Batch of 4 targets.
Target 1
Amino acid sequence: MLVLGIETSCDETAAGVVRDGSEILSNVVMAQPIHARYGGVVPELASRCHIRLVLPAIDEALREAGTTLDRIDGVAVTERPGLVGALLVGVSVAKALGYARGIPFVGVDHLLAHVVANFLIDPPAEVPFVCLLVSGGHTELFLVSSRVDMRSLGGTLDDAAGEAFDKVAKMLGLGYPGGPELEKLAREGNPAGVDFPPPLPRGLDFSFSGIKTSVRYYIERLGRKPTLEERRDIAASFQRVVVESLADKLLRAADETRSTAIALAGGVAANTALRETVRKRAERYGLRVSIPPTILCTDNAAIVAAAGTERLARGERDGLEMDARARSERAKGQTRGRS
Amino acid sequence: MENRWCAETSSPEETEQLGAALALNLQGGDVVGLSGDLGSGKTCLARGICRGLGVEDRVTSPSFLTVNEYRGRLRVFHIDLYRVGRVTDLRTDGYDEMIFGSGVALIEWSEKIAGVLPEDRLDISIEITGRQSRRLIFRPGGARGKDLLSRFTEGWANQ
């Protein structure tokens, strides 16, 4: 089964073709560098860029996959969460393809798509496993028992990890988007240089608001602009505390659910320190570990195609009344214990 | 004199309580703008407002591009514009249902879109005065903003 995935939830226009939910034939991501000029995403500009880029992205994805629209069995599109105007572009294209060409389409939750990245790697993750989804908007642990069945085990009480990265990056004078910049700065720093207090939420929950505030006070106490060396140490020390906290909880979740496999997903899973720490811990405790390559961690459409494949294969489809939604179903009270 | 009201809190818990007290006076369609530096406690205040509206779900930072929706006595849309560079038109940008609808809109970093927000609203800015202490400055806009603030401050004074 060939599925075309479309992703336009934020500031990247993406299309990709996936066979049988497991083999990536193409994965095209077109960036919109214009937002950096404004220090953040400009929703209206994002929508306009998506309109311009979405059809070329789809054409390119079909060409790279060596296929044509006639051979596509279904379309999967991100319908939530994200900027409504941006999401609408992808959703409208999916509907148009459905209406004009009779191709069935389904809407996909972007967050679940990130987790599904672990089925697109070689070898694919074997269920059940515990997955840490960590991105700019989310930090959540799932027990994944099948492609469509995942249960939340815990999540952040306040800020997402990626959000803390971005905000601390801003305090250190780094540009947007700050996460990758902060990682670069941290590489040269001493991770034990500053003793930031580790977050201490109970159970399988996370908290990153406190560490963000600690960094702020630390910089203020200096009473001057931190030197480059100090900034490196702050970045490295901050990153260490966040990464340790993420890895600790992931391992703890595996222990509590008696899982023998762990996995990472989401944009922050592209962070090298996190990847290395999780890999080392998994080795130490004899757990299988699945970490998708960076391209599958950041926003892309192959994961969207893969996430929609199961429903399409069962003959399910959405109708023309499908709407883009800003909110994730999960965000409503974190929907604990529900998939 | 500018029409405004200030409150000092000495802990995140107190900031949350203040939000809960404010929530008792909210009605459908109200817009509350929250501004203040990183780590000043905007989400903490929003959490208090949600609690006061009877929201039982966990209230986390909606940051980046997602909006968190909660249901309490009223629907609540918790929006964070931190990563948004510029908003030109609330309708085409998809925020109209949340800001001009029948729910309560709590908007962090609202100063970024002050020019396109409805005049009837309550802006609250938070200043960091110490490690745990904060000063909250309430600025009402329009008739509804003034009414909301006066009901809240009366209730607060009678506590």
Target 2
Amino acid sequence: MTAALAKIGAKPWIWSFVGALVVWLAAIAFTRGYGASGMVTAALSLAVFSVIVGVGQMFVITLGPGNVDLSLPANIGLASAVAMKVMDGSDSMVAVGILAAVASGLAIGICNYLLIWALRIPPIIATLSMSFIIQSVDISYGRGLQIKPPPEFADFITLQIFGVPILAIATALLTIVAAIVLHRTIYGRSVLAIGQNIRAAWLAGIPVGRIRFATYALCAALGGLNGALLAGYFRGASVDIGNEYLLTSIAVVVIGGTSVAGGKANVPGLWGAALFLVLLLTMLNTFGVSAGVRLVTTGLIIIAVITIAGGEKVQK
Amino acid sequence: MTSISLTRTSAPSAFAALRSRQALRTALPALSLALILIAIAWFNPRAISYFGFNLMLNLAIPIALATIAQMFVITVNDLDLSIGTFVGFVGCVTATWLRDAPALGITVLLGSVAVYAVLGALIHIRNLPSIVVTLGMGFVWQGLAILLLPKPGGKAPDWLLSFMQLKPPLIPFPIIAAVAIGLIVHFGLMRTSFGAILRGAGGNPLAIRRAGWSLLKTKIVMFTLAGIFGVLSGMALIGITTSADANIGNGYTLLSIAGVILGGGEFVGGRVSPLGAVIGALTLALAANSLLSFMHIPPDWQVGANGAILIIVLAARVVLGRRESRQ
């Protein structure tokens, strides 16, 4: 028993799944079992978006303290507009539209790293300044944009097999690839090494600049992809479609057991944390509480989870 | 942290280099502020007057106070993502209870400072990532603000209104306030021995602990100070805007972080500059509110221009030779 507990304690991401399970049980206890599987389906289809940006943010945060991409919300907003404009409601342009959105994200990621590199400023400030500029570009580019996504694209995003959204399966594959990249490729190991000790990594001959560049580009490209998918899910683009993903992307990474100090990433935890956050909202909505109470409860539960799961062990 | 530069300084000149670096860290923010002021004078010479400064810098006081609050947290290598919604919550309390039931209002505000102290203790004892804890607190403060004031409204207490509208002779009130805030915090944090301990807790925690100081205590002190300045920021804000709104402070989180960095502070290592932080906040306030409207930037591009100014100011720092060796 204690051995099992110790094993769980060694895997902090398990707590996020435990949390998700607890809030789901609380919600179905309230509805007396009604809509239990529907809740899981809905949670899966919403959690997907947090997981996609979470993967990108996880790679960035793993680079070490101060590394975080604050331009994701603006990036997602712009990409959603780009995707809708390029697709222009036509089924034949879906792939091109998604590629355009990813390219828009990629371009933002490149600009982000150029700023970090050229101005030698903390990434938080670089990506923050960048996000202001992207917002303006989006406001001016996406003004009055009311293009619906192509029907096939919208259908694909909500398509389910036995209650499991296709998109969730695709994203699960994406996270498996991300885990392999992180733990089994030179690139992934380099990211971890930089996060553990950037100077040691540099002295060991790791191309620190190139790896960081690739990581910011990867994160922003995933943000672009997320923008296109969100526009399909919510049936249209909007400037503030990505707003909630600033906090969510950071929250899923950290609640999922990735170290904010860098050098230690956790891929499965992303799913647990994303499901936990979505189910938490579902539960509070089921209880029918007001917006204020919902916010307070969400905040307190996030703090409670992180307190129980605990931080890293203090070096003695 | 962001790049690797291996500068080698010989031992005797190391101390002098440290001194000049510190001087540079304070001088650069001042230069960027001067840059913005020159630009404003260029576009609208009449703004450079007693009345003009009063208008332009009014909102800079709460921003400066929030930036100082953020700076305390950054000093001990943490980050407060809740300061914006906290300022909003304090604003709502100020515009309702502090006016209608002062005793209750004061108790709630003191209680919220105590919450900050508890957060500091919690973060230290459980070794939690401050980003997540304050992220959660951000939701809590915003939720409480919405519960307290579901619709924009309320009114600031009269004494606060008249205090924020003081018109001292010769020098505009916001400038006096900014200088006072900067100097008080500067002397407390940079010139006293306890201030050195507090900064040391961020710079080299192990050394501070080995020297017999309690890291728990330093963290609690810093978070309490952050809470106090957050409360002051919220009250100052409501003294200017006269009424409150649950979302009134939301932008302050990012503004305060940008202000600290613009002011020459760094995210890790206890390297901060209170004077720089205040100047950084003034720069941001002037750039965001005044310069853009004088330049007749179309509304679509206002936010973007803000970002561009931030980048230009930071680029100016690089051009002016920012060669600090890091890590």
Target 3
Amino acid sequence: MATPVNSKFLVGIFDDDDVVLKAVREVRESGVRIHEVYTPFPIHGLDVALGHPRSRLGIAAFMFGLTGCITALLLMSYTEKFDWPMVVGGKDSFSFPIYIPITFELTVLFTALGMVATFIISNNMGPTVKPLMFDLRTTDNKFAMAIDLEKNSLQETAIESILKQSGAAEVNVKQF
Amino acid sequence: MASVHAIPSLDEQYEFTAEAKRRLIIGGVVGVALVAIGSFLLASGVGEHAHEAVQGHGLSEGHEGAHGHYTWMTRFWANVWVNSVYFTGIAVAGMFFLSYNYLAQAGWSSVIKRIPEAMPAFLPVMGIIMLATFLIAGHDLFHWTHAELYVKGGEGYDPIIAGKKGFLNTPFFLGRMIFYFVSWYFLWRILRNYSLQEDLNGGTEYYYKSMKFGVVFLVIFAVTSSTAAWDLIMSIDTHWFSTMFGWYTLASWHVAGLATMTLVVVMLKEQGYLQAVNQSHLHDLGKFIFAFSIFWTYVWFAQFMLIYYANLPEETIYYRERFSGYGGIYLAPFFVNLFLNFVFPFLVLMTRDAKRTTVLLKVACWGVLVGHYFDFYTNIMPGTVGEHGGFGPIEFGMILIFACAFIWSVSTQLTKANLIAKNHPLLEEALHHDI
Amino acid sequence: MHITSAVRTPLVSGGKTYADVTEDVCRQVEGKPTREWTIAFTISALVLVYGSACVFYTWWEGLGVWGLNKTVGWAWDITNFVWWVGIGHAGTLISAILLLFRQKWRTSVNRAAEAMTIFAVVCAAMFIFMHMGRPWMAYWALPLPNTFGSLWVNFKSPLVWDVFAISTYFTVSLVFWYMGLVPDLATIRDRARSKVSRYIYGALSLGWNGSAKTWARYEYMSLILAGISTPLVLSVHTIVSMDFATSVIPGWHTTIFPPYFVAGAIFSGFAMVQNLMLIIRVVFKLEDYITTEHIESMNKIITLTGSIVGVAYITEFFIAWYSGSEFESYAFINRASGPYWWAYWAMMTCNVISPQLFWSKTIRTSVVWTFVLSVVVNIGMWFERFVIIVTSLHRDYLPSSWAMFHPTLFDISDYIFSFGLFFTLFLLFAKFLPVVNMAEVKAIIKSSSEKLPQSVSGVAKGERVTNPTFNKNVD
């Protein structure tokens, strides 16, 4: 997510995961656009409530796996069939059953590494990344709902009261 | 979605309609007719010409498993045996599923628990048929039952088979078979009774008792599943042995049982029953079939690979027979088996959406069920009928007869209780199941 | 919705809030090392130093310092390797297979178990390097072209499969474990008060912000990782077992080896997890998170896998007789009654009989019994590998070359080295990283607590820097 510059946010702090889940539905129903919700642990159904599309990491994983599978088979068939044919243990220089273990291992290796790399890149993560924290307690015990005031037509006070009504324990202003 | 589900009524009574009964009877009659036609064709020698040439080379003589006195009856009994092994496995897999779900304290499966619970009722039928088959046609199917193999110095003496006499002898074999069916069936009766009483009386007492007897079953099944596989299947190829065979057969039975359960759940749902079963339950069942298909493949591959790699003649003969023996007639079933039991469910059930789509779930289940039939077919047929094997009316008919009888048995059991075990202590979790 | 049936035993006791979880776990990361930790670390480090010297000497002098001979060409080295790899199976089992099975009790133990996995695999790899004799040639095991003056590696050799399997397993486990750590590292980052730890934990947490979108992707990724790690964990010990089973040596060539090795691996791994968790829960005061229910669940798995191993032993023995192969039969009779009978019966007693004691609820809920039996199980599993490897080799087809194996000081010391390495790494982990997965435990608090506090959020203890400098866009 690109860092929003010069944006003013209202940050509703919630104490309870069930409350924040309910609040997301209520706030969205009252026509307020939610920037994002920050939680210390995953809340089941929160992404659906926020209307986030389903992740396509699975497709990436499948593609990486396929790459690994093909790489392994190409490597082994090239070396053992073409580059230096060899009969070992009475097996043909190309013996498919024997290649299955390594093919499997490389499939898994490529899938895991490729998918994790995709995850890190798509979330704009990395060791030098400075995260945009709306409230430091969201990695501990609080749940924060951030609302970008520039992207909402409603008045700040109106949004604040909507947040309060839906159960926010406190509402802070945060400027980036 | 974590939304509040509307929980439908839990009182559902399955009705085994006259229409369904009529269809099953027709199916059975067609099956009998096909078997009769097939038997008639075999008895009159149709389609046997090709084999005579092979026989002329003496390939089958002196070869274990093939018998000098082959008649069409052997093929008939071999078919009875394949189907018996297959449906015994499916029936007992229901009990297996119930037991390990109790042991693991699984919550989600409590809503579909009545379906696996209905399956083991077929065990006595299978037990009687198998015992009768063994007593009538044991000599046709099991090479080791021939007395001359054990006569030292005799013409037919086989030192290796004679060495197995302590295990492979008729009284002990019969005793083991009776023990399997009796122990499996009675432990199921206990669990079933508790389950029915739980419906009436509620409370957690029956839950804990069921857990206890489920564990007793698992302990017994841990041993008997392996020994049953050796007895009922592996001893057909009397010389051959594989330590993996017990677990391999268990994996096959288990996944066939899972596919059957899933199919029943989906079909009941389509008929308007099992309202409380939601997409998450189907998703979980799909995952089970997906995972255990891969597990079966793992076990299959490990066994195949080690035998292929080490290349010891007394072991590889088993795969040789299926690859190129008997004129290569078992090569196609061999690969059909691999395709339907691994490639097919793996590709069909890979995505999340597929496991939630009833059509794809049904397709995968049918694939797995057909595939595992061929698994037992390739394990049993070469050793019993050898080059006389094939796939004709007698095979189709026999499957129809057994399948109709099995469906009849399951349907009857389903009518005997509410379709949802409404007092199961973990049911509430299953009703709100959401993944 | 948190529907949990009343028949389930709670997994978190003491009425913990989210803030309590953070506090209880972060306490030892942020605080000064305790005295127990310092003593344990010193001992481990000393053992490691002694062991390293012995390993160095082994390489310097050559493998002749071990007790190997022409008949028994593999002994303690491969025994230790298989033993450690086996132990390294429990972590991925807990984090992957139990995740797929939605076992909530996994959340409190998975972090430490995965760390244990990684360190156990490191120890296992050390024996591979050791038994190469010339570890600087290790790259020859990689698929490199023949410009090095040799052929390509032999892809038909199970030992090459091992190279792929172990390195893949290590990499994937490490990635899985590290990705699991990221949210918790962000927690520590946000609590940090010193610049150094804020910088270090900030870099390690990869800029985690805990947004709903990240969490959704994160959970999806974890599920896929679990999905591929499950067959991976099976494949690793399968391939290790194939080092033996693809051969034609009686006692080694048996088709049940792959699943039977996997079951044995999980068995010994869980025993090791039990040992470590029982210590951690006391030393770090985590009894509210690692409860009797956790111990009992793990003991049930130990009994289950121990029984599976038992069935496999019986199957092997039976088929050895049933096969009618005199060599196969002899190999098994020799195991039970030959010169290594004591190893065989140690294995049988420790692996098959001792876990059956857990059928008693009193024993499986007792901390002392659990600890002792877990040690016994690991001794038994070491003997299992010893029995398989040494007794199968020491008497082959040629009676004139039958021999015994006698371990030397360096066999023993190189084994001790691996303990020093393992515990040093584990203690470092326990001090500097959160030993319990905070995010996952918080996620089950509502559904699995013994009693819920008034406000589940709780009051965060400790001061915080309100405007930390790592948050560059702060006004």
Target 4
Amino acid sequence: MSKSPFVTLIFRGRRFHEPAMPLESLPELAAYRDLVLAVAKVLFQEEKPGRQRLPKGFEAGFRLVLERVDPGSAVPVVSRLFDDPGSKMPLFPTSDLFDNARDVVERGIAAAAKDLPLPKELTKEILARFNAFGRTLVDDESIVVAQPGKREGAIYDRAVRPKLVLQAQATYEDDVNLVGEVRAADKDAEGFVLRTSDGRKLEVRTPTLFFPLALRSLGEAALVRVRGTGLFDADSTLLKVTMASDVSLAEEGDEQTRPGCPTPVETQVESLKALAPGWYDETSKAYDVPALDWLAKLLKGLLDGFQLPRPYIYPTPEGLARAEWSGAGWEVVTSFDLGSRSAEVTAARANSEELHELAVPLNQPGGESQLGRFLTDHLAAV
Amino acid sequence: MSSAPLGPVSDDEELLFRQVHPAFIRDGRPSSQAFRPTLKDEGKLSVARGSVTTAAAAYELYTAGMGLQSAGSWALSVAECREQALHVVPDPLTSPPEKVADPAHAVIDFVPYSKSQREAKGARLAKKALERGRLHPPPPGNSQ
């Protein structure tokens, strides 16, 4: 039996600084293997259109192993095993289907990242398989899919993945980690309705073993944490949880540390930069880029410094930038005047007429702290 | 707007459809500014009455009929407006003078309230609309 380097997958991001693979990321390697195998089957059918079946041992002959993890981010070196040294797919002596399939996957990822047409071998059935690859990546992480021995290749991340999947279908799947309250449960339908902290009601399909806890949450209005697979539309809106892998009681403080908007602040602010003059009506102007950079830095400091959930950020027709939070008991809206570097905050209690206000200059010492304390007080309060 | 004054809408169950600009949607969540008047609206928030039209027809009229941008129809109920001490007044539009007639048009009256009160009421209404979800276009994969 011999081995030959097949692909270099460079995992980038905070979790991968050490030359070691986190266990929770290992499914990515199996998903990658399945993807390449599926493409190889398509290539075989293209080359042998008359054949109804794959050659015996086609699938079993494609064996990948994690040979080692190299330093410089976590770099799992994946090799291919061969029974007969030097042999590849015997039906095709001049080229190897699995090597070609690997290259198609890499080219497809690179093309999707640049919004270019995808290789024709990436059929809808193949594109749907990208649902399983990259599922464990979070916002600041990516996988560089490179040729063996190389460190440069196609970059696969949470933005590229839906671009591929959504060319095959109207929705895509991703991991979810939600905190909320169960509002209805149906054992026959194997599901319940979760009301999340921002007020959305989501259907959750779940194995029956989690039902007792769901019923407890329903009866006692207890917060639960739901992990599993979510279905998202093209706008990255979570439509439902297609299968919960874990339902557990939320920990103390989960109300305060709820993640808020799934899109990072920097990405949200970037989208404001992209608004052209006239985006709302004939009087609406484009945003000033340095002012938005100031806002992104300010918000990031506030979120990190005060452990705040991520706000939903919007433009306004008047040229302000608006950050909105839905707390456990309060709806909080902060309007940032990017010219005067100031903010006006309105906190409205959800179930009464109570209203708190704050106007704060952010270009003076202490302004940022004042804003952070006001937000913390209202987002932590029930 | 029409000149003949009409009495407030009184059926608590009636839904009021609100069109939301695409820039006011983030990860499926509409901004609460879509549920209170802007500076140009003179304190009155336009909606379409559910007793006269549908979420789909209101969306079509707004986008194809009036040529305006919308990410979809969200809805509030008359009862939810009443809880915020807001009156809903029918305001059917005729053509001319309007470009397109809209017999379902109505307004939610924020005129008596200050800027911060309008903001607070809009935030509470947005929460209700978000809980109800977008009514049109229906989300893909929605089994309901």
